[in-house]
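Below is a filled-in request sheet from our internal design queue. Each sheet records the structural input a requester submitted and the sequence that came back. We keep these sheets so that new team members can see what a complete request looks like end to end.

REQUESTER: design group, bay 2
PRIORITY: normal
MODE: inverse folding
CHAIN LENGTH: 208
BACKBONE (tokenized):
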């Protein structure tokens, strides 16, 4: 489990194929900030851009760890197939503060940035989400974007998509990868877990 509060900015340094065809996944080597891996053990869960992964090896002195990601996971996520920056969050411990909201690290869909512009001291980010996620998006509700816990400010439904708006403060832009987004960028989305269970109890289908 996670909280959506990013604990470090990392970088995928290498993405090596685990086989010769599309059915094989990749082994990712991730560089971390100095000291980030000091309390990590083999097999620990670390979220990369909101996707829960298992540390298959790590070198705390070199500030690097590896994960194996399946072809299925690569197909259902964004930003993990090639070298580049990633948001990092270690799994929640029982005594940690729950600063964001309860996050499972399972990506429900891929959104597309349609607008990203300054508004006063903050920035407005608008994302088109798959229509299947519309049921789980609500005004003042929670959403995870590339692993970052955020609050929904507005929701607009259309036949094809569900567009939602959030505001990002300078601290979030400086300490996550969200500051690098632009119109057309693809992002990983995870809906609020409570909304998921409420929808299930009401007999509605889950995200595809």
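RETURNED SEQUENCE:
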């Amino acid at each position: 489990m996670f909280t959506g509060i990013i604990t470090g900015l990392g970088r995928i340094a290498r993405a090596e194929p685990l086989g010769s065809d599309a059915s094989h996944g990749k082994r990712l080597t991730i560089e971390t900030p100095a000291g980030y891996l000091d309390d990590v053990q083999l097999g620990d869960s670390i979220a990369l851009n909101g996707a829960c992964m298992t540390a298959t090896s790590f070198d705390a002195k070199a500030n690097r760890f590896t994960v194996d990601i399946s072809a299925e996971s690569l197909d259902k996520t964004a930003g993990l197939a090639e070298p580049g920056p990633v948001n990092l969050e270690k799994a929640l411990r029982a005594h940690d503060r729950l600063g964001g909201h309860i996050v499972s690290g399972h990506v429900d869909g891929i959104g597309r940035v349609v607008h990203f512009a300054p508004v006063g001291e903050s920035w407005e980010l608008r994302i088109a989400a798959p229509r299947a996620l519309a049921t789980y998006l609500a005004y003042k509700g929670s959403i995870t974007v590339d692993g970052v816990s955020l609050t929904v400010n507005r929701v607009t439904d259309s036949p094809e998509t569900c567009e939602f708006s959030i505001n990002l403060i300078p601290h979030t832009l400086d300490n996550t990868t969200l500051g690098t987004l632009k119109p057309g960028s693809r992002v990983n989305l995870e809906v609020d877990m409570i909304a998921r269970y409420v929808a299930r109890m009401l007999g509605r289908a889950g995200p595809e």
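SHEET NOTES:
- The two ends are 21 Å apart (CA to CA).
- Residues 65 and 176 are 19 Å apart (CA to CA).
FILED BY: M.R.
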